[in-house]
Amino acid sequence: MANTTFNGAVRSENGFKKVTKSSTGAFTDNSTYSTNASVGGTLDVTGRSTLTGNTVATTAGTGITTGTGTVYAASVIKTGGIFHTKILIDLTGLASSGSGDIIGKAATANSHIGQITAAVNGTVLGGKLTCLEAPAGGDPDINLWYADEATGAEDAAITSLTNQVQMCDSGDLALNSVISIPTPPAADKYIYMVTGAATNADYTAGKLLIEFFGYSA
After folding, report:
1. What letters, b where the CB count within 10 A reaches 16 and e where it falls short, cover 106-143?
2. CB of 100 within 8 A of CB of 158?
3. Tell me: the pLDDT tens digits for 173-195?
């Protein structure tokens, strides 16, 4: 059957199903949707739900995404009035240098890990950094800062950017370290990973989960 466009509401008393049809004509239910009330009720979903639209408005800059072996993924989910932003990073392929310098692909500009906006991430109240794999090669003392510009380069001092503010002081990260982010990022700022000590080397390991919790102001 071809795509069908309806003018008006589509109603069903017994829910909706997403199905696939095999070459033999057999149907398999992939997911089932049903609601317990017409408006403002509960939506029950059976099967896997993929929310492909829930990504931060600005992804990491090319100083992060072009690292060899580097992994970057981000999402935002709003539940009620709470925004939950997650940024997942594998540091492999990035580099650290002097103390207080920006982490990113060696000598590469735009080494931010994303921009926070009130429209997408809410007004951020706080957050945390969880170390899923201990950093190796590069410096393990990784702090988070924010600044006005997206252009900060690896090996440049974070203090060379405008209105820069340190959000957390992590010390050396180890497996299962959980660091509070007591100073949340202000709206429209770009976030950077910054060394707390001097190690001029490439990362060969290190996985981080950075989370922010915001609200509808």
Report:
1. bebbbbbbbbbebebbbebeebebebebebebbbbbbb
2. yes
3. 999 999 999 999 999 999 999 99
